Amino acid sequence: MLTEQRHDEILKMLDEKKSVTLQEIKERLDISESTIRRDLNTLHDQGRLIKVFGGAVALDSRVTTREENIPSREALHKEDKLLVARYAAGLVDEGDFVYLDAGTTTGYMIDYLPVIGVTYVTNAVAHAKRLADLGAHVIIIGGELKATTEALAGNEAYVNLKKYNFSVGFFGANGVDLTAGFTTPDINEAMIKQCAMQHSQKRYVVCDGSKFGTVSPVTFAGFNDAIVVTNTVADEMYKNCTNIIRVEAGAPSSLNK
């Protein structure tokens, strides 16, 4: 198949689905991954698609680099976040060694989290203080403070985090997408999220439904690398995903308890 023919087929797939994975292109066109990557790089440079981790998304997909500060984000979809946070907090058991990522939804979890017999590690200064005020045993990693998210990141934070092994980790994400996975605008924060997730036995991404279909510049995990706890997902393409927990109003804090 000629190069232009391959490009046309890839763009046709994006017209149909809005996002496409390397594996889907490989199966449809019967070409190698190295060829696919070259084609995607070319099409991305030509401004005909957006190359993301593991594939590509159409130009009209919701790709955003904007990152609101904490007060602004706390006000967005607050009731949905509280619903998700309450459920997610119920997934913590006595004896757990928990990583709690920076973010507004993870922050809303704090009022519902158990404080006896659980140790929390976090990269969020505000999370650490609130947990300590409640009487929880909390460890805050070192690193460079990012003002907009109030998160500690950078090389020192990464090195500190690598020594821990968590029984469970809870993560925020700016975007959730089948192809791009879990994404965030900042490469340094992405490294911290990725490291903590790799060191967590059980992994949960907590977010409201507005994050689905949105892609930020940096992927920190693939879509199937964690269980997503959310309130609702409007897009039909996610309805058969087995790693999504949809929490409805009035639901108990955890289906596992």
Write the layout of secondary structure elements.
Layout: H1 3-17, E1 19-21, H2 22-29, H3 33-45, E2 50-52, E3 55-57, E4 62-63, H4 70-75, H5 78-89, E5 97-100, H6 104-109, E6 119-122, H7 125-133, E7 137-140, E8 144-146, E9 151-153, H8 155-161, E10 166-171, E11 175-177, E12 181-184, H9 187-198, E13 200-206, E14 214-215, E15 218-221, E16 227-230, E17 244-246
Parallel strand pairs: 4-14, 5-6, 5-10, 6-7, 10-13, 13-16, 16-17
Antiparallel strand pairs: 1-3, 2-3, 8-9, 11-12, 12-15
Helix pairs in contact: 8-9
Summarize the structure.
It contains nine helices and 17 strands.
Overview of the molecule:
The chain has helices spanning 3-17, 22-29, 33-45, 70-75, 78-89, 104-109, 125-133, 155-161, 187-198, and strands at 19-21, 50-52, 55-57, 62-63, 97-100, 119-122, 137-140, 144-146, 151-153, 166-171, 175-177, 181-184, 200-206, 214-215, 218-221, 227-230, 244-246. It is α/β, with parallel strands linked by helices and 257 residues long. The longest helix has 15 residues, at 3-17. The protein is elongated, with a radius of gyration of 19 Å. It starts with a helix and ends in an 11-residue tail after the last strand. The mean pLDDT is 88.
Rg from alpha-carbon coordinates: 19 Å
Helix-strand pattern, N to C?
HEHHEEEHHEHEHEEEHEEEHEEEEE
Compute the number of strand runs. Answer: 17
Largest sheet: 7 strands, parallel
Instruction: Give the number of helices.
Output: 9
Average predicted confidence as pLDDT: 88
Give, in spatial order, the strands making up the sheet with the most strands: 7-6-5-10-13-16-17
**Gross geometry:** elongated
